[in-house]
TrEMBL record:
It holds the Pfam family NadA. One of its GO terms (biological process) is 'de novo' NAD+ biosynthetic process from L-aspartate. HAMAP family: NadA_type2. The keyword Transmembrane helix does not apply. It comes from the Bacteria. This is Quinolinate synthase.
Length: 333
């Protein structure tokens, strides 16, 4: 390695943090990343800011600068609780919007405003109004992977971590569950007594997995444990040993400690879990989310330096969208 990359003692900078990410970040790249990490830590103190990072963020973000990590539900809960002045959402746009809806008086930043989501793109507020006209009186449960405008038209939200509990909490015979068709079908399989009406939205990461992928993994790694996210098609979930949100998959690994596991979800999930669970072997397949991968340490640094890109939600949407999110937060799985 170039000697200029080393500090005066001949060691890599921030060695404790590098230890956590060394399987994912080549040593040659670490000094530049460590510079961003140090700058982000200082900026967080100066601005009274927190970084909330989703489980799909790359290890060099997840394990170095995040104050709070978790699934969509945990990030929404923590966003509702924080007393920081500035919230940086290392995740995708709908997550930052949810944080803003819960904290209209705070500055909420997203390091890359183009970090979207195929599910959020699949439905508009006008679509929800038209669904309501077609199904009068049927409550609308909306996945948090949607815009504030869609949330504002909904009765309450859900995440993959509480979808079943949210639908059950309504006590209704028919429920519209939008926009993730596969999540809705997977909940339907668990709740045969309720009729769940769906919308044809899909996650571009999870819809690509097939039941054949799982059978191939079982053949290649006999005895492997298969965990699948409920955004996967029902045929994939049916082949898995367990299905749950990213936080539920983490709990499963840390409770059951399988020798070998395949996580049928975004690749960073296994990368981040491997750091804390070196005795578990994580095997492929996995898929990358191009939206989550738009976030980098450099963009988080720039975001805190210039207070960009600020996420705003029109005043008229805040109250109805907040009602739907808060009704969700009140449901205990
Ligand atoms: P959860 O972390 O809530 O399971 O969500 C997964 C996801 O795809 C978020 O975009
Ligand atoms: Fe959206 Fe899927 Fe990416 Fe999550 S993984 S942000 S649901 S496209």
């Amino acid at each position: 390695m170039d000697a200029s990359l080393l500090d005066r003692a001949g060691a890599l900078p921030l060695p404790d943090l590098y230890e956590k990410v060394r399987h994912h970040v080549p040593a040659i790249e670490w000094p530049a990343l460590a510079d961003d990490v140090a700058a982000i830590q200082a900026l967080k103190r100066a601005r009274n800011a927190v970084v909330l990072a989703h489980n799909y963020q790359a290890p060099e973000i997840f394990h170095t600068v995040a104050d709070i990590v978790g699934d969509s539900l945990a990030l929404a809960r923590e966003a509702a609780r924080t007393d920081a002045d500035v919230i940086v959402l290392a995740g995708v746009h709908f997550m930052a919007e949810t944080a803003k809806i819960l904290n209209p008086g705070k500055t909420v930043l997203i390091p890359d405003p183009e970090a979207g989501c195929s599910l959020a793109e699949s439905i508009t507020a006008a679509d929800v109004r038209s669904l309501r006209r077609r199904h009068p009186g049927v409550p609308v449960v909306t996945y948090v992977n949607t815009s504030a405008a869609v949330k504002a038209e909904s009765d309450l939200c859900c995440t993959s971590g509480n979808a079943r509990a949210v639908v059950e909490s309504l006590g209704a015979p028919r429920v519209l569950m939008i926009p993730d068709e596969y999540l809705a079908q997977n909940v339907q399989a668990e709740l045969p007594g309720i009729e769940i009406l769906t919308w044809a939205g899909h996650c571009e990461v999870h819809e690509r997995f097939t039941a054949a992928d799982i059978r191939e993994a079982r053949e290649a790694y006999p005895g492997v444990t298969v965990l699948a996210h409920p955004e996967c098609p029902p045929a994939v979930v049916a082949e898995a040993d367990f299905s749950g949100s990213t936080a539920a998959m983490q709990d499963y690994v840390e409770t059951h400690r399988p020798a070998q596991v395949v996580m049928i979800t975004e690749c960073a999930m296994a990368d981040n879990l491997a750091v804390r669970n070196p005795d578990v072997a994580f095997v492929k397949p996995c898929n990358l989310c191009p939206h989550m991968k738009r976030i980098s340490l450099r963009k988080i640094r720039r975001s805190l330096e210039g207070l960009t890109h600020e996420v705003t939600v029109p005043d008229a949407l805040i109250a109805p969208a907040r009602r739907a999110v808060e009704r969700m937060l009140a449901v205990r799985p």
